[in-house]
Amino acid sequence: MFEDESVDVACPQCGQRNSLLVRALEEQAEIHFVCVKCGAGVKLEANEFRARLDAVRAELHDLEREAARGPAAKSRRPRKDDFNI
Ligand SMILES: [Zn+2]
Questions:
Q1: Disulfide-capable partner of 31 in 5, 15, 44, 67 (CB 3.0 to 4.6 Å)?
Q2: Quick one: DSSP state of residue 77?
C-alpha cells in the first residue's frame, strides 16, 4: 500500500533528502526528524505535507493511467474497432 511507502523530504538546512514513512506523516499532526547529513532538527507540519502528498498521489494516478495505456493493459480493454467515436 501507499501508506507503507516512504517519501523524501529535503532538509531546509542542507538539502539532504531524508526518507520518512508516509504512514507516520498521516498519523501525526507534526513530524520531527533529524537530518541524516547535518543533524538539524526539522519540524514538518503534516497538514502542509498532506497537501503535497495529495499532489504526489494525483501524479501517481496519472502515471497509473499512463501505464494502463501500455501494451499490458490493452487486452483488458475493448478493441478500438468496437467504438464509434
Ligand atoms: Zn541537513
A1: 44
A2: S
Grid cell 541524516 in the structure block, residue: 36
- Predicted TM-score (pTM) of the model is 0.54
pLDDT in tens, 74-85: 556 666 666 666
Sign of the dihedral through C-alpha 23, 25, 27, 31: positive
Cell numbers found for residue 77: 480493454
**C-beta of residue 11 within 8 angstroms of C-beta of residue 37:** yes
Residue 44 C-alpha cell reads as 514538518
Task: Give me the residues near ligand 1 (ion), CB cutoff below 5 Å.
Answer: 11, 13-14, 16, 35, 37-38, 40
**pLDDT tens digit sequence for 29-75:** 888 899 999 999 999 888 877 787 788 788 888 988 888 887 665 55
